[in-house]
Amino acid sequence: MVATLIPFDESLPGWERALYAFLAEKERRSGSRRTVEGYSRMLQHFFGSVAKPPERVTSREVFAFAHGVGLSGREPSAVTIGARMACVSSFYRFLIRMGLVASNPCDQLERPRVSPSPPRGLTAEEIRRLLAAIPDTPVGQRDRAIVLTLTLTGRRRAEVLGLRRGDISCDNGTAYYTYRGKGGKQGKRELPRPAFEAIERALEGWGKSLAAMDPAESLWPSKHANGRGLTSGTFYGNLRRHLGRAGLPPAGVHVLRHSAAKLRRDAGESVEQVSAFLDHSSLQVTTVYLRRLEGVEDGAWWKVAEALGV
What we know:
Blueprint: H1 14-30, H2 33-50, H3 59-67, H4 78-97, H5 124-133, H6 138-153, H7 157-161, E1 168-171, E2 174-180, E3 186-190, H8 193-205, H9 232-245, H10 255-266, H11 271-277, H12 285-293, H13 301-308
Antiparallel strand pairs: 1-2, 2-3
């Protein structure tokens, strides 16, 4: 994957080879191509503009890059400034670990304070409106299955859209899915029955069935994906249209993860239970280990499904 972002050449200077290694490590840790592409673009832009090797870059040059006007012609927001600083600083921490530089120029800079907007989740009634607005077509059935899977499992977009046939298994009438989460975490959890049934119906609309699919085949077929399955960008655009038809404000795919957390709390789960459900980093190592070995049954999805009427 990283090889498509920057060319690897043994004759490159040490720090440029280190950039390749940094991106490869970032890919392994995050599991997100989008993150790696963003870091690659940002770092190549920065070092291309300063035209210096890392050991000669000054804090003033990092400051100018972070606060500089971008292609839009507008002053960068505090979030953008923070993201630029974080990207450069992360690369310098890697270079220090590799023994290629002695210090991080970002340490002298003050990060802008950001007041994040509160996360917004949809209510059960709004999710019902969204599901009702999705057309009953093969594409619509697939999108409906994705919405249900995101809402009932609370997984991140990449974790759901990356699901393959081989990630689904059944044991004593219960369906499970395996996933690779943020930071490379892996797990196996119960796939709520309404989501599993929606996936089966959606696949039927595309002339497919779980029993006949290749293990490497995507659960989310698409006419324009050359067999690789639905892309994140295509689903994002579809979701925005579905939200518009439902009379709901535009939102990104992550709103469904927020919705999953909100609905769990509404169903009476504790903060600790929701944290574990979302697979946050506070989980104990033993819990992670056991979840890798055993599918964790999900005893509360039916409450959310009942609220959604599915």
